[in-house]
Amino acid sequence: MSLIEINNLTKYYGKFKALDDVSLSIPEGRIIGLLGKNGAGKSTLMRCMLGFLKYKGEIEYSGEPVKLYKESIFNHLAFIPDVNSLDDRLTVQQTIDYVSALNPSWNSERANSLMVKSDLPIKQKIKNLSKGMKTKLYLLLTLSMDVKVLLLDEPTLGLDIVFRKEFFNMILGEFFDESKTIIISTHQVEEVEHILQDIIFIDKGKINLHENIDELKSKYKIVTIPDERKEELERFNPKLVTKTLGHFSAIVDNNIEIEDASYGRPSLSDLFFATVGGSDE
Q1: Taking all residues of the chain, what is their mean pLDDT, rounded to a whole number?
Q2: Does the reported pTM lie above 0.70?
């Protein structure tokens, strides 16, 4: 069942086309990675999905169209950005009370359960919290809402590896089930690859690929052969050819067999670079 429908989405900033005729159909019960280079359109896509930007085209959640600053959209989704907007003047408890009063989808029972599990200092002001603690509070607030969709835009940027792991474990344990959908935009794809089910590649405002990850990886493999056999490898139209320690490695179609070669499974990063190419910076 499709939970989110995006049709012919186009967004300009002046004369610059940030999104170019994007169409996506996203089902419920999936964890989806959104992968692109800097400036590819990831954050713009999410901001359009949130109703924060004007755009051309159509976006719907469960049949409800997204309009600019339409508050009812937040009955369907929650959002964790890369920079939070918590009020530094409030304490942790005051922040929870404030957010709960504003959101009809607030689940007090879940919020209390999450608060008990956390080590957040209830009486401390937001301005005195570390970035990790602020992110944890933001996550607690978000997971306390009964919504179907969770959008994550570089949510763990600048946080240490221990907290990043805890962050995603909490999302999986407290939010995700077969009726909900999570979309994660991140540059640290290796860190979340094991939890993703689908992947979207975006480049220069266009969707290059939207596919089930297991099906995508089953189409390709990495083959490695000695230097002197490079011409043999080139006959198979390889992608992402690299040279290391006297050997060449490349991504090839899964049905290709080369005698005495060694094989491996490509990562999402490998497939992204093979599809989109390297940095434009």
Answers
A1: 89
A2: yes
